[in-house]
Amino acid sequence: MTDKEMKVERYREENRFAEKGQIVFTGSSLMEMFPINKLLAEHGDDTVIYNRGVGGFLSDDLLAVIDVCAIDLMPSKVFINIGTNDLSWSSIPISAIMDNYDKIISAIENAVPGVRIYLMAYYPVNPEAASEEMKECLKIRTNEKLAAASAEVKKLAEKHGQRYIDINRNLKDEQGRLKAEYTIEGMHINENGYRAVYDDIMKYVRE
C-alpha cells in the first residue's frame, strides 16, 4: 500500500467517528500541510475543521476518493486546493485539470445539498528560493502558469455558483513570488507562511 493509499484509509476510518456538517479542507500537499488545527488551538478557536489533504495527489486522484476526502463528512463547507501537482507536468493541459475539478465539485454538490464550496487560488512559488531538486519542476510550474490556472478555477466557481477565494496577498513578495522566508524549497509553504494566511482563510470559514 502506498503512502497515499494509507492516508486515504486512515481518513476513511476517522470519518466514521467525525462530526457531520462541519468544515473540510481537501486537496494535495499544500492543503495537507496546512496546520489548521494547530493554528485554531493557538487562537483558542474551537471551530471544527477536518483536513483531508493528501500529498502528491493529482486532480484525478482526488476525484477517485472524493467520498473519503469530503462527501462522507457531509460538510457545510469545503475548501479545495487541487491541481498544482498536475501543473508540474507539461504533458497535462490546464483544461484536463479543470475537467477533473469540475467533476469533483459536481460530485460534492450532488451528494451534499446546500454545501458551500470554496475554490482556492493557487499559491505562488519562488524559483529563486528553490532547492536544487525543485528547480526543474519550477520551470514548468511557474507563477504565470499558476495564475492562468487560477483564472480557470475562478470560472469554475462562477459556473457552479460557488466561491473563488484568493488568500495569497500576505505570501507574495514585490515580484509576486512566494516570499523566500515562507517557503521550504521554493514550492511548499512553511508553518509561518500558513500563519500569514490564517486570518484571511478564517474570514471565509466564519462567514
Q: How would you classify the helix and strand content by structural class? A: alpha/beta
CATH class: Alpha Beta
The number of helical runs is: 11
How many domains?
1
What composes the largest sheet?
A: 5 strands, parallel
* Coarse morphology: globular
Q: Tell me, rounded to a whole number, the average pLDDT.
A: 97
Order of helices and strands: HEHHEHHEHHEHHHEH
Q: Please tell me how large the radius of gyration is.
A: 16 Å
Strand order in the sheet with the most strands: 2-1-3-4-5
Gap from first CA to last CA: 39 Å
Q: List low-confidence stretches.
A: none
CATH architecture grouping: 3-Layer(aba) Sandwich
CATH topology description: Rossmann fold
Number of strands: 5
Helix content: 40-55%
Q: Tell me the name of the CATH homologous superfamily.
A: SGNH hydrolase
Per DSSP, what share of the residues sits in E-state strands of 2 or more residues? 5-15%
Account of the 3D structure:
Strands 2-1-3-4-5 form a five-stranded parallel β-sheet. The radius of gyration is 16 Å and the shape is globular. It is built from eleven helices and five strands; from the N terminus they run αβααβααβααβαααβα. 39% of the residues are buried. Helix content is 47%, strand content 11%. It has one domain (3-206): Rossmann fold, CATH 3.40.50.1110.
Structural features:
single chain, alpha/beta, 5 strands, 47% helix, Rossmann fold, 207 residues
